[in-house]
Design goal:
Layout lengths: L23 H15 L21 H22 L6 H14 L17 H14 L10 H11 L12 H14 L6 H13 L1 E3 L2 E2 L10 H6 L1 H10 L5 H18 L24 H8 L7 H16 L48 H4 L6 H4 L2 E5 L4 E6 L4 E6 L22 E3 L14 E3 L12 E7 L2 E6 L3 E8 L2 E8 L7 E4 L3 E3 L5 E5 L2 E5 L4 E9 L7 E9 L2 E11 L3 E10 L7 E4 L4 E5 L5 E5 L15
Antiparallel strand pairs: 1-2, 3-4, 4-5, 5-6, 7-12, 8-9, 9-10, 10-11, 11-19, 12-18, 13-18, 14-15, 15-16, 16-19, 17-18, 20-21, 21-22
Helix pairs in contact: 1-2, 2-3, 2-4, 4-6, 6-7, 6-9, 11-12
Length: 624
């Protein structure tokens, strides 16, 4: 894609920020650009923002509230971060919207907060924004407007809430009500915080509700809202609870810092990816709550890197708007609840503006992130993930042996391409709604591939992770540098056809180049990003293929995936994603007891036990 002209931004400062060139002024300018871009879409009374595009399942009325609430969060951070030294029109704009939106007789009034309704989500943003901008907005509202705001937010008290991160929306909203002396339920606040404890799985990781639901909701919800709650609650907050949340956030950030590539791109995994740079919110939250293990220069480098990454790829667009997509508009990254203004949850990325200008996160010289300086492997046993990144190309890869976002048994659901793949990265996206990339499947007689289904994690330690999936396939992944070797034990009738895909690489300019041969397939983008798949054992000598798609990938219009087809009880594959990464010289030897010795292209050897997987149980974790 053609790089946009970023004329609204100040000059880069490579003395203070030698890696990104971005400073606090860039964040402020981007916030202003986003707020200005929304202004033409405000309703006359400024209570809603009605952007064009397909409505969410909640409908346009709720979507209009969403536009107000999520941009109000951004405005509040901008106003408070400048100590009110912003144009008075910004404060007046949101004061007017609050007055109109909470007036049940106004034509732009907001939908009520009802059981399990989308306004619950937006109420939390309104509550946070009111708290953070209190001195410049809430304190100056007419008493009648404040009373109406309290009445509207009060719809949360006693309401039925989805048993997920939504419990924290109730915690936030009712804590704000407590802060202004309004009716609230302390029991509901405490119950929401206790439910968060139920979902904690260790190592800094929560599941978003029951099941194995690990994704960026850890970043922009489950760790973020406890910090915001403590700011609202002040002395009302239990000190032990606050300390527990801070310790978990700090531990989470030791891993989260590894999720950003050298170019600033976050690993592309999970739902709600249209929130984009909201992935940086916990970095700022750690600094805000004094709960971060990261040096301040690294915090800013990671956050600014992500914001700059999207800016250089047309986000926001030429109108100053955030669209439903990743780079360009791309509806397949959305969900039923996504409306035209949903992307403005990205406002959470601007939390750092609440830190004063002289805070070290703004004044310290940028420091490299983990991927900038060395190859790294990081096992995360709680979500069942294995990260491996390479400094030479700046890519972070996530091997997935634990997050499927399926409801707890016995309920079932179809695979999601953002959870069911064997791997994700900072340089690629899965073909959506479904493709062969990073998936191994049994093929039905009509060619229909099996789904991965429920992932049963078995281990994530050192350089190895393993799991069992529905359909009788056990997989062990061993990683080194840009390489992953997968060892699959297939429990299926002899001769059952099996298909495995490598990484999907995508480009807007032109289709990736394909190169295939006996037991191998490769797809290469014009800039050199290459996905290769090489048969090491059990696949036979059939030539690999490259499966192409158009308009199926968030990273580019033209995508291509290398694929192998074969059959056998034991299959071993080399999977490569990188630039200039060798894909020859790998091998696998199967011993009599079923142990597999694998050799990576650099000559490194590992021994893998490829027998039938044992029942799931506690899994160890480690880091190398």
């Amino acid at each position: 894609m053609t790089a946009p002209t970023l004329t609204h931004l100040p000059e880069s400062d490579f003395l203070l920020s030698p890696l990104t060139g971005w400073t606090r002024a860039h964040w402020e300018a981007t916030a202003d650009r986003l707020l200005d871009g929304l202004a033409p879409y405000a309703t006359p009374g400024l209570a809603q923002y009605r952007l064009s595009g397909p409505p969410s399942h909640s409908g346009p009325w709720s979507d209009g509230l969403e536009g107000f609430a999520r941009s109000f969060l951004l405005a509040a951070f901008r106003i408070a971060g400048a100590n009110g030294r912003v144009g008075p029109a910004l404060v007046e704009r949101y004061a007017a919207g609050l007055a109109a939106g909470t007036d049940p007789h106004h034509p732009e009034h907001w939908p009520p907060i009802a059981d399990r309704s989308q306004p619950m989500v937006e109420a939390a943003s309104v509550a946070v924004a009111l708290h953070e901008s209190r001195a410049w907005l809430w304190d100056h509202l007419d008493d009648s407007v404040r009373a109406r705001v309290v009445d509207w937010l009060g719809g949360f008290v006693g309401a039925d809430v989805n048993d997920s991160n939504w419990r924290l929306f109730q915690v936030i909203t009712e804590e704000f009500l407590a802060s202004v002396g309004a009716p609230h339920s302390r029991a509901e606040i405490d119950a929401g915080l206790a439910r968060l404890d139920d979902w904690y799985r260790g190592g800094g990781w929560y599941t978003d509700g029951d099941g194995r639901k690990f994704d960026y909701y850890n970043a922009w919800a489950l760790h973020l809202y406890p910090v915001l709650w403590a700011r609202i609650a002040g002395p009302r907050a239990d000190a032990g609870t606050v300390a527990r949340h801070r310790a978990r956030l700090s531990e989470f950030l030791t891993a989260h810092q590894h999720f950003f590539g050298t170019d600033g791109a976050p690993v592309h995994q999970g739902r709600s990816l249209t929130y984009r740079f909201a992935t940086t919110a916990p970095l700022w939250a750690g600094a805000l709550a004094d709960a971060t293990p990261l040096p301040p220069g690294r915090t800013r480098r990671l956050a600014s890197g992500a914001l700059k990454h999207f800016a250089e790829r047309g986000v926001p667009d030429e109108r100053g708007l955030l669209t439903l997509g990743w780079y360009r508009p791309f509806v397949p990254v959305t969900q039923r609840y996504s409306g035209p203004a949903s992307p403005y949850w990205a406002s959470k990325a601007f939390l750092g503006l609440l830190l004063p200008e002289d805070h070290p996160v703004w004044t310290a010289t940028e420091e490299p992130g983990p991927v900038d300086t060395a190859d790294t492997t990081l096992a995360l046993p709680a979500p069942g993930w294995l990260l491996h990144s390479t400094a030479a190309d700046g890519i972070v890869r996530l091997v997935n042996h634990g997050s499927d976002r399926l409801p707890p048994p016995p309920a079932t659901a179809d695979d999601s391409p953002h959870y069911a793949k064997l791997a994700y990265s900072s340089a690629t996206a899965p073909d959506t709604p479904a493709g062969p990339d990073n998936h191994i499947a049994l093929l039905a007689p009509d060619g229909t591939p099996s789904q991965r289904g429920r992932i049963r994690p078995l281990a994530a330690e050192g350089r190895t992770a393993r799991s069992r999936q529905d359909g009788g396939i056990d997989t062990v992944s061993v990683v080194r540098g840009p390489w992953e070797i997968r060892v699959h034990r297939v429990d299926a009738p002899p001769g059952t056809p099996v298909r495995e895909g490598g990484w999907a690489v995508a480009d807007d300019a032109a289709p990736p180049v394909a190169d295939t041969g006996p037991g191998r397939a490769l797809a290469r983008r014009a800039d050199g990003l290459t996905s290769a798949l090489v048969a090491l054992h059990g696949w036979g000598d059939a030539a690999g293929t490259v499966v192409r798609a158009v308009d199926a990938n968030a990273c580019g219009r033209h995508s291509a995936t290398p694929v192998l087809d074969g059959a056998g009880p034991l299959l071993v594959t080399l999977v490569v994603l990188g630039r200039d990464a060798p894909h020859t010289g790998a091998a696998a030897t199967v011993e009599a007891d079923g142990t597999v010795e694998v050799r990576f292209p650099d000559g490194t050897r590992e021994r893998v036990t490829a027998g039938p997987a044992s029942p799931p149980g506690p899994v160890p974790g480690g880091r190398s």
